Structures are given as structure tokens and as C-alpha cells.
Amino acid sequence: MKRFLTLLLLLLLFLVGCQSESATNDNGGSGGAVEQVGEGVAQVGSAAPAFTLTTDRGERLTLESLRGGPVVLNFWATWCPPCRLEMPELQALYEEWQPKGLTMIGVEVDSSGNLAESANFLAEAGVTFPVTRDLGAKLEGAYLLRNALPTTVIIDGEGNVAYIHSGAITQPFLNDKLIELGF
User: Fold this and answer.
1) pLDDT in tens, 24-55
2) Domains observed in the chain
3) Which of 5, 20, 128, 170 has the highest local Cβ count within 10 Å?
4) What is the pTM of this model?
């Protein structure tokens, strides 16, 4: 019985994800940053809240500038075990779909503010898609409705929220979801 409860608890943690902690400090560096977020809250079928952010590559992106193709926002933190599990899955999806016009942006909502820790996490996972840091919890407030990590949001080419998933996600599942949504 004890083993069953332990397995059930681990499964629940994996499915639900980690509770998000708002970031409060920054140790500097060029990890990118969320600059501005528009009014509203992400809801499937509604316009996605506008945003302006800078990626770890120094690219300044707005939701408006990304129109025309699907956008995947993935909210994660270094301390979140399900986030660590899904990062290679997201990288595989990015490698497959980026040539087809997909934009993927990793959004770090880590409270540690430690840029070196974040860089190590991304390097270990082999991440090549753009990442930004949401140290002021601006994007988190508009997109993390369940306050759980990881959370993945798909925005269609017209800027509407097409899908929201809380908890770890796999590359095959997300691939099927993009096809189902007509991308």
C-alpha cells in the first residue's frame, strides 16, 4: 500500500507539474527579459495577451511580429523536475517544426534569478530555441492560469490562444496537437 501511494504521488507530481514561484531577483547577464505584457488573460479561443520580450540571443520579439505562424510558449523553471523531463521533447519538436514556420520561446519563471544555473540547465538539455526570463512575472501573470509548471501555450498565426497544457508534455503529443490545430 505504501509503495502504491508513493507511485501515485509521483504520478500526480508529473501530471500536474510544479507550483510556480514568482521571480524576484536578477543576477544580471543576457538571459533575455520580458519587457511588456498587454491586458488580459490567456484563454483558449481568445486573443493572446500581447507581449514584448528580449530573448537570450538579444532578439526583441512582439506577439504581433510573430503573426503568420504558430507560436509555442513554454513556461519552465530549473527547480521543476517535470520541466527538466520535457525540455528534450520540446527541443525535438522545435527541430522538426521550426523549418515549417513554428516559433518556440522558452519562458523561465525561475525565482533564483541565477543566470549561470539557467544556462547550465539549457545546455544540459541541448536547447537551441530562444529563451527569455520573466523575472517580474509579467508574462506568467497573463499566461499561467493554473500557476503550475511546466505550462505550454500554443498561439495560432492570428494571435489567438489555440491550446494550453499544464504539466509535462511529450514531443509526439505536441506534434499531434499542432497537426490537429491545422498547422
Assistant:
1) 233 334 456 655 555 566 778 889 998 899 89
2) 2-180 (3.40.30.10)
3) 20
4) 0.78
